[in-house]
Write a structure and sequence with these properties.
CATH topology of the largest domain in chain B: Rossmann fold
Strand order of the largest sheet of chain A: 1-2-6-5-4-3-7-8-9
Shape of chain B: globular
Mean pLDDT of chain A: 81
Strand order of the largest sheet of chain B: 3-4-2-5-6-1-7
CATH class of the largest domain in chain B: Alpha Beta
Number of helices of chain B: 28
Largest interface: A-B, 46 and 43 residues
Number of helices of chain A: 19
CATH architecture of the largest domain in chain B: 3-Layer(aba) Sandwich
Radius of gyration of chain B: 28 Å
Strand content of chain B: 5-15%
Structural class of chain B: alpha/beta
Strand content of chain A: 5-15%
Helix content of chain B: 40-55%
Largest sheet of chain A: 9 strands, mixed
Structural class of chain A: alpha/beta
Oligomer: heterodimer
Distance between the termini of chain B: 49 Å
Low-confidence stretches of chain B: none
Radius of gyration of chain A: 23 Å
CATH topology of the largest domain in chain A: Rossmann fold
Amino acid sequence: MEIDFSISPDTQAVLLLCGAFGRSDRELSPITPGQYNVLALALDKLGKRPADLIGASGPEDALIREVCAVPSENGRVKSLDPEKITALLRRGVSLSSALDKWASYGIRVISRADDSYPSRLRRHLGGKAPALLYYAGNAELLPGGGMAFVGSRDISAEATEMIRRVVRGCVDLGMNIVSGGARGADQTAMQEAASMGGKVIGALPCGLMKACLEPSNRDALADGRALLFSAFDPEIRPFSYGQVAMDRNKYIYGMADSCFVAESGIGSKSGTWSGADEELRNKNRNPVYVYLGKTPSAGCADLAKRGALAWNDQKTVAENLAESAHADRGGGLKQDDLFSGFTAAEPEAEYGKGVASGKVPEPVPVSVNAEEETMYGIFLGEMKSLLSVPRKEADVKKRLAKKFDLVAAQVKHWIEKAVAEGAAIRKEYASGKKKSVMLESVK
Amino acid sequence: MITREYALSCLRQAIANPNADFRDGQWEAIDGVLNGRRQLVVQRTGWGKSMIYFLAAKFLRSQGRGMSLLISPLIALMRNQVAAAERVGVRCYTINSTNPKEWDGIREKILSDAADLLIVSPERLANDDFRRTILEPIADRIGLLVVDEAHCVSDWGHDFRPDYKKISRLLERLPRTVPVLATTATATSRVIDDIKAQMGESVEVTRGNLVRKSLFLQNIRLPSQEARLAWLSGILKTRITGSGIIYALTIRDAEIVSHWLRMNGIAAYAYCSKVLPPQDMAPELRAELAAKESWKAATTESAQVAAYREFLEDLLLGNRIRALVATSALSMGFDKPDLAFVIHYQRPKSVVDYYQQVGRAGRGIDSAYGVLLNGEEDDKIGEFFIKNAFPSEQDVKSVLDAIAETSEGLSRLELERKFNLKKGKIEQVLKFVMSDVPQPVVKDGAKYRATQYVRAYRIPADNILRLTAIRHEEMRTMDAYVNSRGCLMGFLCAALESPADSPHCGRCRNCRPDLALPETVEPASLQAAADLLRKSSVPIVPRRQWADPASAAVRFGLNGKATIPPELRMEEGLALSAYGAGEWGRLVQKGKYATNPPRFDDRLVEACANMIEERQLEKHPSWIVPVPSRRNNALVGDFADRLALRLGLPCWRGLVKVIDTPPQKDMENSAFQQNNVIDAFAVDGKPPEGGCILVDDMVDSKWTFTVAAAVLRRAGVPFVFPLALADSSNNGE
């Protein structure tokens, strides 16, 4: 059995610059995705590729100097430091050691600079397309395509049956089934596809190492029926980073031609709803189908109002798809060479059109019974139960960081969000010179 | 920018010689490394390869680069190297199995940028725990990778080593941003091509000739062991002066040779993987060892072994003993410039091995001996090593199937409980498959878990056939060397494809027959050696740990700890012979299988009695008890009766076998062996007063003795002295 675990010279460079190699405690932290985009753009302007950095002699090297001298277009990204870039490029032993470990699990890696990088993702996400993709399984599935299935974790029997029917229809048409690997809707779709011998593409919200060893995945990977991919370092365990689950939604949508939402909660705390809503607002969006059925879920009904297409369960998959071919699908980025995303439209995509265009979604009132589907939702639930008594903010931060294995910045961000949404109240008390910041729950 | 002049001044300062100069290629290799060009340096041992990486490491640091990582196979070398590096002003540390307590401190040193060179063994580097806890946190800082004994990374090399296969995998994936230096003394063109394929075609190769002018080579064919023993003691007393190394192929041979030499007044000690001080160690050395901090601090057996080996190395380095009798545990990398001789008691398996080992001699002196003795058993041992070099297809399949059946994987212990396979065999299977690509099994924490490649995995049979063929070819080449009539150094250089100045060294036995060492032995010495071989008993070292603590806990009402409580242990005992070897060993074989009905010869009774009387036991046994058998209780019982009569002690028959068990020799690993007999024995009636001798015909795993002794001890017997007629355990290393 011959499997090529080698990587392209470009990917080698991108990994050296951006790879975490399984550790978050590095003294020398990799550059951020934003910084990478700036660097890639700078290289592109110079007519160079990432691989050219491998030959650079040190911080004094002309190419490194030039690349680092290019400012980010809107000044939001911290500028690149030649010393740091050089030091990152010299992390060769970390790189080869990590590649060896990943290969032993059957994990390979490609970068945005590779031809085999899914052009669907590039087109769909522009500069937000992850610089690195880790994958395991059938590489022929990398181009993607097919139908994505999303939905709640706790899914009704009716929606489950509907998913199965649609999956069967798609597999009969030779379409791939794209999903996220979570409990509920995701797994229902994947299992149904697997039982029919269909091809499955899984976008995972965590590193691939654990998932690769799951017996069910193991067999599908071995048979060439599955591709698992992730933008996250292979060693990242589920729930290590909060943004992960939400980012993953983008990749599910991006890898498919269209998406089927069987059932959804409503509001920003529902991952299904947030993902679909985001997709509907993406100018490169794919058709989003919602199943309304006899008693539509609140989320699906709402999404239908926002531009999602109603799935007609009296018609076949092919008929449903044919109908939507006439529907408005938004624009599409021009197809492109090496750094497809880096056209004039790029920076806006990169920094989030929500912020750039001022269209921040309305904060959704938090209710105790709301679906705990997003990472933030889970976090909020835990925080609320902590705040059954008022506590010092520092204490809350410490406990939550420990509980979810989160970096401090992420905890801070979510606490700010919770306070801004009114899910918690911050009060400052002063006694003498000492000041303490307390968090309390909303009564 | 480091200039040659500056580098030379550093070299001169380092070796405190204002007139020193670089050897041809030394500076070029340093300069290449500093400029990011990968280097392969093929030069004989002692040429100065280490100076290349010491200076390169130093200069890289002065340029603000990270520390260097040196992968080197042996611990002896590491200690040597650390001292040498310090003389060059390179802050050097080593992480290996003997110093786990220092690991944290060393990691801190590296992270605070206070280290220039770290030396680790390939075994460490392939170890998952090491990679996670030590290597990964420091890997960002590694400014140079040095691979010593680089011929091992090649499949075409003389040896298949899974740990080196892991180095290949690292090398192949290493970006050009990290410079690489590979060094070896022995690389044929085929090996060089293979190393190049892993390091990149642009690697620059420096290659010198391997002739060592000070070495006098001679081969002597002496079929019997007693002849070789007698030759050794004679030659070391009369012709060869100075200190050196004697290589043997098995641990048992190393022990016999060193014992014989000590009996002849020659200070020689065995140096093997599990060696501990022998009973007849010189008292002053024993006292000195006892005073050593590392020996006093050693709480585990492996720590004692490490401290003792270090002690032995120092004795040899200081010329305080005549010889170490070593297995391949002391091959590559032992650096002693005035080593006066290297003698092989048996023929090594390849020219590469032989050159590596004989090349230790005469580095810094004008004259040294390299003598190869060739015995009747050499082919058999060679075949044994070749046959056991790779795991069998069947073993691989059963281990992989068992792992693949589980979703959470299996730990090493669980595998041992599941399979009637030797612990070493299970380890061999795991190491082998985990070095293969794609990898069917990974280690995830303590568990071995299956990957997606497990079902399709096939042992690379073609490759194994190819490697096995290479090994046979290497054995034949060694045989040709032994029988060569031409220049011996010329033969070695040609086999290793070394560029040579001249086809004749003008120094070896065949170039200068007038300088040859005599090939005859003293008849008296020959007789004494034959006596020793006939009589050499084998100690039965008591087990201290249960293989399966759970079943022992149930049987003896213990707490489930792995340690066997002292009140249940046996004493250190004796086996009269090694099974099938020497006069006694052959008599045992005959009595058990070639006599009808089976009966052990009276000479064995006498020999056992003599052995016990000579041993002058500290505690005097009052009675004898045979290990019972349900298959042939008469054989051992009859022998015990006769031995009891001869010793004037009563023979008690109250130890009984309560269940039938399959032969212990069919059990392949410790857990199976323990559990096969854990419930087998019981005491019928009250044992006599005082301690006893527990007699069996064969001892291998020691589990029968261990469990039977525990049953007796539990019944109130104050001590149990195990005695076997023959040790049938395999002592190969």
